[in-house]
Write a structure and sequence with these properties.
The complex is a heterodimer of chains A (about 290) and B (about 375). Chain A has about 290 residues and is α/β, with parallel strands linked by helices. Chain A contains 13 helices and 6 strands. In chain B, β3, α4 and β4 form a beta-alpha-beta unit. The chains are: A alpha/beta (about 290), B alpha/beta (about 375).
Chain lengths: ~290, ~375
């Protein structure tokens, strides 16, 4: 079997995704379907995850649970292979591997393969916790040198779902912009999961979305780290973010921490985004100057 | 304690009975109105779904009337409803209201929270009286739902539709006041007599349309622009499986009524083999049911940004094609206007009428058979 991987997100891909999905779907689903459509003529079948939950007691989000069906609707006849993760069937376990992929391999070989994958996954996450971004971490994993960044000690937090933070097309290069201004950018993946879990204890009822937990926990950790400010990137029509965002906003207001909440969708224009981020950075600098005096 | 609760269609009737029976004072919010929409939309997060906003508006209006406690449902996710109460509590507290929030969490969720709520609810009266109050509320909602179903089937057939609706309003008013179970049946029979008194002689069965979708939007007529009445006035019989009593059976006493869940899993299996939260799976199951029973069409109602229903909406075309079942999706939020909804409904009903006429003219049996 040869895996075929779709390329980076682009305008055409996004438009194709927007066309094929229902209007109300959120941006990431549209992008996902766009990626599927670009692969349609290049592969025999799709491997689609059905991420019900990756931790006990919490879910990813309903759209991830129905992702295979939505994909089927978009790509038509092409067969789907569903990689399912559920309460009693973790993503890395041998029984989670779809039967179609397992065929013809011994149990030992599958187990070995999964171990290898897990080791790579852990190394990758360790690199992210050192403050690298996914593209840079992949470079390092491939044997390259970690990129050097100029440092002036100013740090800014960037929170949101991973697909918003790490896809430069979706967030219109926000990360690069912040780097250009000389900020060190801290994301939720910078913090070890254990620390994030500890931060969630203050909630009266645990959040039942894994990603929202990560966002909220990272937000509190960023406050403790005393970053200059936080940029919150969210996707339009994202369900969990509507409620988590409100909690984060109210918390930030209570703590007096500058927060910029940007909502991304397929109509976002770079100019509008850049203006707002620049204005936010100006405010941060002003705040810094006045609090020094 | 003066307790309030969110509105959802006919839910206020049994809950009021229950709370009063338990020795508390029920303070129902004023029926959802324009101000509720405004308050809800003003103080809620922008991206939250419509039920969240309306609930919040209800709470604000009830707290202004002097409610001291809020009784609210909980959930285990992944639907956002499970986290409504926590965010609403935060918003209301920041607005300066003083109140207590009591959550009815499902078993398997926050046990302490459920325990605290039950302790508060049952503190005033002995257990046998509480049981009686609960039984009374259950019976009341059953009869009310039955009356509602009767109206839905009679309205398109009756000569004077305004009068039929008035009889129904009177029935609801009488049921709301009733404190004992003896006369529930009598009120129902009275309504039945009034409705049956003036019917058109049956020439041709009216169009039958099923309403599916998110439970709040389906059940709350003040939010879905009285969809059922509008359709009834157009001469369409509205069918729906969803009701407050059915919800109680399925979600509170699912253990005793396992057939609801089995039916959903069985019907939705070929199209959506996984749970997607909320009523996503039920929507698909009901749509399949409508197709199998050869209904004329389905209308899916959902609040804007509802996650489970968007999954269902994406799959709906497949079901629609398989059973040749016309489907109209209405996505509503606080900016929706009645005229827009009405136009779409009229167009949809015209389409269904034409479809039926063409089929009978061609001498074909109106079929929903796949293939």
């Amino acid at each position: 079997m040869t895996p075929v991987i779709s390329g980076p997100t682009g305008k055409e891909l996004l438009n194709a995704g927007v066309k094929t999905s229902v209007d109300e779907a959120c941006l990431p689903v549209k992008v996902f379907l766009g990626h599927c459509l670009t692969l349609r003529n290049r592969c025999d079948c799709f491997l689609v995850p059905r991420l019900v939950n990756i931790n006990r007691k919490d879910y990813i989000c309903p759209k991830f649970m129905g992702l295979p069906e939505m994909t089927k609707q978009a790509v038509g006849k092409q067969p789907l292979v569903i990689w399912k993760s559920e309460k009693n069937c973790a993503l890395g376990s041998p029984q989670a591997v779809p039967a179609a992929l397992r065929q013809g391999f011994s149990a030992r070989r599958i187990k070995k393969g999964l171990q290898k994958a897990e080791a790579a996954f852990h190394t990758y996450h360790r690199l992210l916790q050192q403050g690298l971004f996914p593209a840079e971490a992949e470079q390092v994993l491939g044997g390259g040198a970690p990129p050097a960044r100029e440092k002036n000690g100013r740090r800014i937090g960037l929170i949101g779902h991973p697909y918003c933070l790490y896809d430069p097309f979706l967030n219109l290069g926000t990360v690069n912009l912040l780097h250009r201004y000389g900020f060190a950018v801290l994301t939720p993946e910078y913090f070890p999961p254990r620390q994030i879990e500890d931060e969630l204890q203050i909630l009266a009822k645990p959040l039942f979305w894994t990603m929202s937990q990560r966002i909220f926990g990272a937000f509190r950790l960023l406050c403790k780290e005393k970053v200059d400010g936080i940029v919150y990137l969210s996707a339009f029509a994202c369900g969990p973010e509507a409620l988590t965002g409100e909690l984060v906003k109210r918390e930030a207001k209570a703590l007096g921490l500058p927060l910029l909440h940007l909502v991304l969708d397929e109509h976002s224009g770079e100019a509008g985004l850049v203006t707002r981020i620049e204005a936010f950075i100006d405010l941060l600098q002003r705040k810094r100057r006045f609090s020094c005096v | 304690m003066r307790l309030t609760f969110p509105h959802m269609g006919l839910l206020s009737l049994p809950v009021e009975t229950l709370l009063n029976g338990l020795g508390h004072e029920a303070v129902p919010a004023p029926p959802t109105n324009k101000r509720t929409f405004e308050l809800g939309a003003k103080y809620s997060p922008e991206g939250a779904c419509l039920p969240f906003k309306i609930n919040l508006g209800n709470f604000i209006e009830a707290l202004e009337l002097g409610a001291e406690g809020i009784l609210m449902g909980g959930g285990l996710g992944p639907c956002r409803f499970g986290y409504y109460a926590q965010v609403q509590q935060r918003i209301l507290a920041d607005l300066g209201f003083r109140f207590q929030m009591f959550l009815l969490e499902p078993l398997g969720g926050e046990r302490q929270e459920l325990y605290r709520t039950l302790q508060m609810l049952l503190a005033k009266v002995p257990v046998f009286q509480a049981m009686a109050a609960f039984r009374l509320a259950c019976r009341k909602i059953r009869w009310v739902d039955r009356g509602n179903a009767l109206l839905r089937s009679m309205l398109p057939r009756s000569k004077d539709r305004v009068k039929a609706q008035r009889s129904y309003e009177r029935f609801l008013g009488a049921m709301r006041e009733e404190k004992t179970p003896e006369k529930f049946g009598a009120h129902y029979r009275e309504l039945e007599g009034e409705l049956r008194a003036d019917l058109w002689p049956e020439a041709e069965p009216p169009l039958r349309v099923k309403i599916i979708g998110e439970i709040y939007m389906v059940l709350e007529p003040r939010v879905n622009f009285h969809l059922e009445m509008l359709l009834g006035e157009m001469g369409v019989e509205v069918v729906r499986a969803m009701s407050v009593s059915q919800w109680v059976e399925e979600h509170l006493f699912g253990f005793f009524y396992p057939h609801h869940r089995r039916r959903t899993v069985l019907l939705s299996g070929p199209f959506l083999p996984s749970f997607v939260g909320g009523h996503g799976r039920e929507t698909i199951a009901e749509m399949v049911d409508a197709g199998v029973n050869r209904l004329d069409g389905v209308i899916q109602v959902l609040p804007f940004t509802c996650m489970p229903e968007i999954v269902a909406q994406s799959i709906a075309p497949a079901v629609s094609a398989t059973y040749r079942l016309p489907c109209l999706t209405l996505v509503l939020d606080e900016h929706s206007a009645e005229a827009g909804v009405l136009t779409r409904l009229e167009a949809f009903v015209d389409l269904l009428r034409r479809r039926r006429a063409v089929r009978t003219e061609a001498g074909r049996v109106p079929s929903g058979v796949p293939g």
